[in-house]
Design a protein that fits this description.
36% of the residues lie in helices and 22% in strands. It is an alpha/beta fold and 614 residues long. The strands form 5 sheets. The chain has an 8-stranded antiparallel sheet, with helices on one face. The chain has a 7-stranded antiparallel sheet with strand order 5-6-7-8-12-13-14, with helices on one face. A 5-stranded parallel sheet has the order 19-18-20-21-22, with helices on both faces. Strand 16 and strand 17 form a beta hairpin. The chain is globular and about 80 Å long. Bound molecules: 6-O-phosphono-alpha-D-glucopyranose (G6P).
Length: 614
């Protein structure tokens, strides 16, 4: 979703801002813009529908000088993607410029009122009311720039991360947040801001995470000042970023998505590191150890998530129920938050989110907190909003995931859910020592098995070219591989724009079978452990209707292979680890089909990496 970058310091701002916007491209966006104050005090805005490259082309012959600026990538919510609706936005008298992430819910009422008072609006955005409202506070109440910001924000309902500059104060930048994240980088005599750490990391590792409903007054030659909306001062807590620049670069791969698929042997080890103790056959998660009593008393787990994380949550349900015998429900956070779910203080709600910023997941856990449930967060981004809003939890520790289509985060989430389930099972005594040791030993070698699957990349790339004609795909799986059918289909539709549906294989007879003909590729996850005989019958049913079978089979399989038009092998493993292996060829298949169709896999149309609006 929208990206924010800001700079004030001794360097030229424009190159830093443009590089920052490029680093934020992964979030998904449809327009880009920048505001700069030059040394003559002129505040200039350049913005355009399209990519950061289009913005660079637009400013080629323009004055982009100045040591202060704000820049934005917009993902349209209110008003179509267009030059005018792009950020930054000017205030009425062009003294102020603002960029914004989030949604201003009461913008219509504010806009009507401001129009009545003589203010003119250029765009259809919700954002423009904020900057007009700030100017209104300056005009009508004689407020200073510093005071006008909280005065205006006290009238705003909704979510925001925003940054504002004032052409009469070219050494100052004001930022504020509610609901959407904002990070301030503290350099030597310079400051940076970002909607996440990626635009900041190459300049400084010292950061301050702006808190909920806080305002940062960032001024050269002054200490960073933070207040809340009632002007109470807070001491900024400077933290050290534990992310490196190489982690957010492509490392020789043509796309972040491919790099991240190939990183999975390493990232899986990172998720287990320090937690898995093969010599003892045990798992230790500090989030569980520190809250042992609360977690062991759980009568039910509710996993709340969106998108790919929701699919990982489904596998988590199977894992936790199998190993601990405690019931688990998996909820789309967006549904959970808007119905009246029955939540009890004996429930433990697990928030599963790569970014830790998904608006619906955050709202769902806040609802659960009000009902007295205990909150456990599984996030990737350290210090993210969900990580901070939960009572305890654990990180997946896989470094930044840049590709919009989630890959390494998914396998890390499944692994972490397994560690969670096994650690609880160990304490509850619901698994035997022998069973536990077997699982721990097997998990340890899963990264090597992933590496072996990745060696088939070329073969999968060749095969993928066959399917560029397809308009529909069906994915089928049973048991632990049913969520993989869903995730495999999601990967394909996200990046290739081919319609794909995932189904539990036995449900095929209840509808999707009507779609099958000789045009229809059907991906069947038919590994030896997962109800093999039953899935074999499902394949026969597809064949009888001339469907074209692509199967994922266990190495050494003969029966399914004989019925398949194409097959991809994965090594044998315990059935609870099959999803971590069976998703790998499906990630590669989706990637290569999308490439063969000429798609922009890292920034697929209309999608955002982190959905920070509902
Ligand atoms: C977006 C992303 C997906 C992701 C989902 C949930 O839709 O494009 O890849 O799975 O959000 O994100 P989260 O950060 O909460 O896991």
């Amino acid at each position: 979703m929208c990206g924010i970058v800001g700079y004030v310091g001794h360097q030229q701002a424009y190159p830093i801002l443009i590089k920052g916007l490029s680093r934020l491209e992964y979030r998904g966006y449809d327009s880009a813009g920048v505001a700069l104050i030059n040394q003559d005090g002129l505040l200039q805005i350049y913005k355009t529908k399209g990519k950061v490259k289009d913005l660079e082309n637009q400013v080629k012959d323009k004055d982009v000088s100045g040591c202060i600026g704000i820049a934005h990538t917009r993902w349209a919510t209110h008003g179509e993607p267009s030059d005018i609706n792009s950020h930054p936005h000017f205030s009425e008298n062009h003294r102020l410029a603002l960029i914004h992430n989030g949604i201003i819910e009461n913008y219509q009422a504010l806009k009507t009122e401001l129009i009545r008072k003589g203010y003119h609006f250029q765009s259809q955005t919700d954002t423009e009311v904020v900057i007009q409202l700030i100017q209104y506070m300056m005009d009508s109440r004689d407020a200073s720039f510093d005071d006008a910001v909280p005065m205006a924000l006290n009238h705003v309902i909704g979510a925001y991360a925003l940054a504002i500059i004032d052409k009469t104060q070219p050494d100052k930048l004001i930022a504020a947040r509610k609901g959407s994240p904002l990070i301030i980088g503290v350099g030597e005599g310079e400051f940076f801001i970002g909607s996440d750490a990626t635009p900041i990391i190459e300049y400084t590792k010292k950061v301050v995470y702006l808190g909920e409903e806080q305002i940062a007054y960032i001024q050269l030659g002054h200490e960073l000042r933070i207040t809340d909306l009632t002007k109470i001062e807070y001491t900024p807590e400077v933290r050290e970023l534990d992310m490196s620049l190489s982690e957010i670069e492509k490392g020789g791969f043509p796309h972040f998505m491919l790099k991240e698929i190939f990183e999975q042997p390493r990232t899986l080890r990172a998720s287990m590191q320090g937690r898995l103790h093969p010599e003892l056959g045990t798992v230790k998660l500090s989030g569980i150890i520190d809250n042992r009593d609360r977690l062991l008393q759980a009568k039910r787990f509710i996993i709340c998530a969106c998108g790919t994380s929701w699919h990982a949550g489904l596998i988590g349900k199977y894992l936790i129920e199998e190993l601990t015998r405690i019931p688990v429900e998996v909820e789309y956070a967006s549904e959970f938050r808007y119905r009246r779910p029955a939540i009890f203080p004996t429930d433990v709600v697990i928030a599963l989110s790569q970014s830790g910023e998904t608006a619906d997941t955050l709202a769902a856990i806040n609802l659960a907190k009000e009902a007295g449930a205990f909150l456990f967060g599984i996030c990737n981004v350290v210090g993210s909003s969900i990580a901070r809003a939960t009572d305890t939890g654990c990180y997946t520790h896989i470094g930044p995931e840049i590709g919009v289509a989630s890959t390494k985060a998914f396998t890390a989430q499944v692994t972490t859910l397994f560690l969670f389930a096994l650690s609880l099972a160990e304490q509850l005594g619901t698994v035997t020592d022998e069973h536990r040791a077997r699982l721990v030993n097997e998990l340890q070698i899963i990264p090597d098995k992933i590496a072996a699957i990745l060696e088939h990349d070329k073969e999968i790339a060749d095969m993928a070219k066959t399917f560029t004609y397809a308009r529909n795909f069906l994915y089928l799986g049973r048991g632990y591989n049913y969520p993989i059918a869903l995730e495999g289909a999601l990967k394909l539709k996200e990046i290739s724009y081919i319609h794909a549906e995932g189904y539990p294989a036995a449900e095929m007879k209840h509808g999707p079978i009507a779609l099958i003909d000789e045009e229809m590729p059907v991906v069947v996850i038919a590994t030896r452990r997962g109800n093999y005989d039953k899935i074999l019958s499902n394949i026969q049913e597809v064949k009888a209707r001339k469907g074209r079978i692509i199967s994922i089979v266990t190495e050494g399989d003969t029966d399914v292979k004989a019925l398949s038009d194409w097959h991809l092998e994965i090594p044998d493993t315990e059935d609870c680890f099959e999803p971590i292996l069976s998703i790998i060829p499906l990630q590669l298949l989706a990637y290569h089909i999308a490439i063969a169709k000429g798609r922009d896999v890292d920034q697929p149309r209309n999608l955002a990496k982190s959905v920070t609006v509902e």
